[in-house]
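We close this part of the discussion by returning to an individual protein. The amino acid sequence and the backbone structure tokens for this protein are reproduced below:
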Amino acid sequence: MDTEKLLRYVGLCKRAGGVVRGADLIAKNLPKTACVLLASDASERTAKQITDKCRSAGVLCVTIGADKYDLAHAVGAVSPCAAAAILTGKGPAGMVAELARSDAETKPE
């Protein structure tokens, strides 16, 4: 996956008001979420918590090649960001989901 390209699209989604971060906000917005992006250095606990919630809601959840600081920068935050939800219909959410989905399908398990 081209992580920089993905993060540029995440930034566009943020400017359109289509990104939420933080476990509670992500869980609250899962019904209207295109996908959830996890930072590569998210803690195991956070990753499991968010992945389990996404799985039960049927939402794509992908670990990306960016760390918490790069993901935070893309979503316009100062503090580290372990995960971000991309909301459906806000900016290029479809492109972010497509890039994330293609990456999830190419990763070996």
Notes: The chain has a mean pLDDT of 90. The longest strand covers residues 33-38.
